[in-house]
Amino acid sequence: MKSQPSGLIVCGTDTDVGKTIVSALVVQGLNAIYWKPIQSGITNGGDTIQICKLLQLSKERWIKEAYRFQAPVSPHWAAEKENKLINPANLQLPSVTKPIVIETAGGLLVPLNRQLLQIDQLNSWKLPVLLVSRTGLGTLNHTLLSIEALRKRKIPLLGLILNGPPHQDNLKTLEQIGKVQVIGQLPPLKEVNAKTLAEQWEKQCLGTTFKRLLQK
Prior knowledge:
Layout: E1 7-12, H1 19-30, E2 33-35, E3 38-40, H2 47-55, E4 62-63, E5 67-69, H3 75-81, E6 100-103, H4 118-125, E7 129-134, H5 139-152, E8 157-163, H6 170-178, E9 182-186, H7 194-203, H8 206-214
Parallel strand pairs: 1-6, 1-7, 2-4, 2-6, 3-5, 7-8, 8-9
Helix pairs in contact: 1-2, 1-7, 5-6
């Protein structure tokens, strides 16, 4: 029987919320394998190429996308524009010997095809979700709705990483109302590279936190 790999899924509450930067942070910190199964929009080569360059990943530390589409739109429509269909049979978890970090294409309720939402695919993977949220205006609604959607389907939520300038109240409100832990906060970085990400990982003691959460 094929064993279930260890790892997590990085999903965002919105578009351009910082999933790729957070994925790079976690891949480096956990010495994990990176996989973005579906890439919509391949400006600058796409997120896989960007993370490989950023972290100088060897070929054993990343997995090729199952689907790559030109248009920077929802995966279901990007596929249709190329007369293709995303088949969940091609999204099976790969067999790996290290923890795997899976970055989704968009948010939880993004359609992968006309019958399948991304959250349904997440449910089939049986891995915990790390939710990436903005720090500023709008994050309370988007984040609390995302938390509700995950819990309704009994998908385990590791916690939140907030991406952006510090906010005086949103962290407290999300933890209190969402009953979830804010694992870390990624501030705006003058330079995003392996060194600055490693500094944030150490500064926020994320290694200890992730080890504890992933062993639950």
